[in-house]
From TrEMBL:
Principal subcellular localization: cytoplasm
Group of enzyme by EC: ligase
Any Pfam family matching the protein: tRNA_anti-codon
Protein known as: Asparagine--tRNA ligase
NCBIfam families hit by this protein: asnS, PRK03932.1, PRK05159.1
Localization (cell): Cytoplasm
Family stated for the protein in its record: Belongs to the class-II aminoacyl-tRNA synthetase family.
Entry superkingdom: Bacteria
Entry keywords, A to Z: Aminoacyl-tRNA synthetase, ATP-binding, Cytoplasm, Ligase, Nucleotide-binding, Protein biosynthesis
Catalytic activity entry: tRNA(Asn) + L-asparagine + ATP = L-asparaginyl-tRNA(Asn) + AMP + diphosphate + H(+)
Subunit structure: Homodimer.
Length: 430
């Protein structure tokens, strides 16, 4: 019977064959211990000389790291293993012998590991991070599908900037200028006017020359947009969504969180509702914490976000930022027009902003004023104005950065480990 490591629990006491790679090995006298991986998980194969014969035992001891092979043996329970099972090996068949695999069990420098990212992905911790990323994606689809959202795919090539920024990758689109998308939001607003509740999931690009541990040049965004929803309605969706994703990872990625030595007690507290603090109160809190230079009207940096998050044991919404430091499309607070109906969701433990969201301007005249104030081209944004011209409604939306969310949930320090092949300021290889 051929199976995978993730399925061996079905075959306790039975003999099965697994196609695998040798991650590591050690031997002790007449017993060899093979650390096997097949992409679905890791399992230990125990090779006993008296059971397998001298020739096959010698072959097992001589296997090199990352050699591919078929391993046949009996599955037994093993309470000492976090996985809970191991294989009593009866036979080995080498498929391809690997030689001089560059990433050994010893410590390696970060740049070396990044240069060998295509091979580093095979390691146990990197495997765990990618499995957690996959679970977040799976849970995202489940949450939005179960709540009546339609997935709509916005274009990656656009003729305009979503937020009026200059940090865009430019290309030629035949005889026109085009840009790699930094957000699908404007297109999702159009989709929401057609389908009510929508979400997108795709790559976005920021030509921001930043080297911090929180930034990537290419990253993935989940961007829901909802017609007939105000700012408060959107905050409830956001906290329920994040809570659902975190609890799904806790339930379905126990082995992976263990492999990363993640403190799950912090994640267990992540259940809606989340605390809210206004921008005004956040300024006061920062001054109390010794940030004497921060003034009203300034945006928050990583140290500010971390200091605010330390006051709470759950993610926290910072609401109602000054209009001057936020995007042109955000709706002003009707009771205080110098601030907008928006919120950033700040993750605990110093991981910073993972969601930015707002209620969008739905009034045509006000949006035209914003166009003029921000110097936006009427031709390029004509279609976006028309969303306010033909049956405009209150609507809200938000964007969650996948990689920052993976870093937080997995407890990974640097965002570069949360995407299979990171694109950073000085890295386009491999």
């Amino acid at each position: 019977m051929k199976t995978t490591i993730s399925e061996v629990h079905k075959y306790v006491g039975e003999e099965v064959t697994i196609g695998a790679w040798l991650a590591n090995k050690r031997s002790s006298g007449k017993i060899a211990f093979l650390q096997l991986r097949d992409g679905t998980g890791f399992i230990q194969g125990v090779v006993v000389k008296n059971d397998i014969g001298e020739e096959k035992f010698a072959n097992a001891k001589g296997l090199t790291q990352e050699t591919s092979l078929y391993v046949t043996g009996t599955i037994v329970e093993d309470t000492r293993s976090p996985f809970g099972f191991e294989m009593q090996v009866k036979d080995l068949e080498v498929i391809h012998e690997a030689t001089d695999f560059p990433i050994t069990p010893k410590e390696h420098g970060t740049e070396f590991l990044m240069d060998n990212r295509h091979l580093w992905l095979r390691s146990k911790k990197q495997h765990a991070v990618m499995k957690i990323r996959n679970e977040i994606i799976r849970a995202t689809y489940e949450f939005f599908n179960n709540n009546g959202y339609v997935k709509i795919d916005p274009p990656i090539l656009t003729g305009t900037s979503a937020e009026g920024t200059t940090e865009l990758f430019h290309t030629k689109y035949f005889d026109e200028d085009a840009y790699l998308s930094q957000s699908g939001q404007l297109y999702m607003e159009a989709a929401a006017m057609a389908f009510g509740k929508v979400f997108s999931f795709g790559p976005t690009f920021r030509a921001e020359k930043s080297k911090t541990r929180r930034h990537l040049i290419e990253f993935w965004m989940i961007e829901p947009e909802m017609a007939f929803m105000d700012h408060e309605d959107s905050l409830v969706v956001q906290e329920n969504y994040v809570s659902f994703v975190v609890q799904s990872v806790l339930e379905n990625c126990k082995l992976e969180l263990g492999a990363l030595d993640r403190d799950v007690s912090a994640l267990e507290k992540v259940q809606a509702p989340f605390p809210r603090i206004s921008y005004d109160k956040a300024i006061e809190l920062l001054k109390e914490k010794g940030f004497d230079d921060i003034e009203w009207g300034e945006d928050f940096g990583a140290p500010h976000e971390t200091a605010i998050a330390e006051a709470f044991d759950k993610p926290v919404f910072i609401t109602n930022y000054p209009a001057e430091i936020k995007a042109f499309y955000m709706k002003p607070d009707p009771e205080r027009e110098e601030v907008v109906l928006c919120a950033d969701l700040i993750a605990p433990e110093g991981y910073g902003e993972i969601i930015g969201g707002s209620q969008r301007i739905d009034d045509l005249a006000l949006m035209e004023e914003r166009y003029e104030a921000h110097g936006l081209s009427g031709d390029a944004y004509k279609w976006y104005l028309e969303l306010r011209q033909y049956g405009s409604v209150p609507h809200s939306g938000f964007g969650l950065g996948l990689e920052r969310t993976v870093a937080w949930i997995a407890g990974v320090e640097h965002i570069r480990e949360t995407i299979p092949f990171p694109r950073m300021l000085n890295r386009l290889y491999p």
